[in-house]
Write a structure and sequence with these properties.
By secondary structure, the chain is of the alpha/beta class. It has 2 domains: about 200 residues, Rossmann fold, CATH 3.40.50; about 160 residues, Rossmann fold (3-Layer(aba) Sandwich), CATH 3.40.50.2000. The protein is about 45% helix and about 10% strand. A 7-stranded mixed sheet has the order 3-2-1-4-5-6-7, sandwiched between helices. The longest helix is centred in the last third of the chain and has 30 residues. The radius of gyration is 24 Å and the shape is globular.
């Protein structure tokens, strides 16, 4: 990658670059999309100015218009995000005690979900949360600077727009003024594997994808596999679109987790010891993923149930927020005889704690059935950990020869691979991955190169048309 992007491009270059983070700026979640959006914003902010490019500005959208996320609004969104991150921590003790007694006495499973929601969920508090979020956005015209789009503007849309579809009106308004629109696509899973989302979400995602295709000059996928899926979808449904993007590309997501300063709770420190030899217990194997059917937690538990028959020294820790359609696996964990002995789970892990877990775990396991990329794989490789991944095309693309791959048809396949690793893990014979994964700086530069190429080509074509007309 050339150190200075500006030197690789002839003019024109964008005068302003905007990144819409409408979902992420108010999200208390720390799953893949939020990590990508935050990392891209942070990294571009570090290198764009020195490379002769305008530093991207974070924006949000409302009523068909983009607004800059300035200090006052940023603080308001951070408060919204903190509620979603762990609403229980904001509730008074008298309420927590009363709600706990009520849930135990009535024994209605959904009552706990509403009154005492897990981290990343809001339960009945979703109503005031959404009202506050809506109030912030309605007041954007008075509390933020509106963006007046121009021909020399580049808008990057990397967020979760199947939840905030209003972005397309703002994108179209900007495009009508000559701005260039680039959109990130993470996967097509709701269309290719609808069993994991349901009919309603599948149709909602289809509408989102059609909007993204019609309102984008450039689509950038997070892997070659997803790029090919998008290209095939456009080709198969071409007659349904009034317009299609000028180009479709892909880039590689970054892997490194920035060293985060922050507290690590005693329970995490005790479980993931910095000196396992002193505690005389093996640190746990780690799985980092939202609790969601396609992440395949049941398979992993089946594999460890096999291992625990003869290997009670092995431990497993599951980290991720509680997603949808996962009541069965959560119940299985909570009723498992190995819970808090060989099996552990954290649903509200912080960045500093996640970093500590990656650094000290015995290995990382990612048994997902289908992915757009598989961020925990490269994060695990970044920390030089033995990485076990399900044998799927996307995992092969991302993990290359640095992972141990197992068969999703049989949990014993994973159990066997872990047994093999245990034979050499504590000996000089063990081998760990040596490939350095892509950094977020490199990743963000790959993405920006695609955006600048499309911007330049569109401006050049526009100038040709203008000159011909003249």
């Amino acid at each position: 990658m050339t150190s200075n992007i500006r030197n690789t491009f002839a003019h024109p270059l964008p005068e302003r670059i905007f990144v819409d983070a409408s979902h992420t700026c108010a999200s208390g979640k720390n799953s893949g999309i939020e990590r990508v959006v935050r990392s891209l914003l942070a990294e571009c902010g570090h290198w764009c100015e020195s490379d002769g490019l305008p530093v991207p500005q974070s924006v949000t959208h409302h009523a068909g218009q983009f607004f800059c996320v300035e200090n006052q609004v940023e603080k308001q969104f951070m408060h919204v995000a903190s509620l979603e991150a762990n609403v229980r921590s904001k509730l008074p003790n008298w309420y927590l005690g009363l709600a706990e007694r009520l849930c135990k006495s009535l024994k209605y499973p959904r009552l706990r979900k509403w009154l005492l929601p897990e981290a990343g969920h809001l339960g009945l508090f979703k109503i005031p949360h959404n009202l506050y979020d809506s109030w912030i956005r309605r007041n954007l015209p008075w509390n933020s600077s509106a963006v007046v789009p121009k021909t020399q503007d580049l808008f990057l849309l990397p967020d979760a727009y199947w939840t905030r579809r209003g972005v397309w009106a703002a994108a179209e308004a900007a495009r009508e003024q000559g701005a260039t629109i680039a959109t990130l696509i993470y996967d097509l899973i709701p269309l290719t594997h609808p069993q994991y989302v349901g009919t309603k979400r599948q149709e909602g995602f289809r509408r989102y994808l059609h909007q993204a295709i019609e309102h984008s000059d450039l689509i950038v996928a997070i892997s070659r596999t997803v790029q090919e899926d998008v290209e095939a979808y456009i080709r198969d449904h071409r007659c349904q679109f009034n317009r299609i993007p000028s180009s479709v590309h892909h880039f590689t997501l970054g892997a490194e987790l920035s060293l985060v300063q922050g507290e690590v709770r005693p329970a995490v420190l005790e479980l993931f010891s910095v000196d396992a030899a002193v505690t005389k217990q093996k640190n746990p194997y780690l799985m980092v993923a939202t609790f969601d059917p396609r992440k395949n937690h049941h398979y992993l538990l089946d594999a460890f149930d096999i291992l625990w028959k003869t290997r009670t020294d092995l431990r497993l820790c599951l980290i991720g927020r509680v997603g949808s359609l996962c009541e069965d696996v959560i119940q299985r964990i909570r009723s498992h005889p190995a819970l808090n002995k060989q099996l552990f789970a954290f649903y509200d892990i912080q960045d500093s704690e996640l970093q500590h877990c990656y650094q000290t775990c015995r290995g990382v396991i990612f048994p997902s059935i289908v992915e757009g990329f598989g961020l925990p794989i490269v994060e695990s490789l970044w920390f030089g950990k033995r990485t076990f991944a399900s044998n799927t095309p996307i995992h092969r693309e991302v993990g290359k020869n640095d992972c141990v791959y197992f068969d999703l048809e049989s949990p014993s396949s994973l159990a066997t691979e872990i047994e093999k690793w245990e034979l050499i893990a504590d000996t000089p014979a063990h081998q760990l991955p040596t490939r350095r994964p892509t950094t977020w700086t490199e990743s963000s530069k790959q993405l920006m190169m695609h955006c600048l190429n499309t911007f330049r080509l569109l401006r050049t074509d526009s100038d040709r048309v203008h000159n011909k007309a003249a």
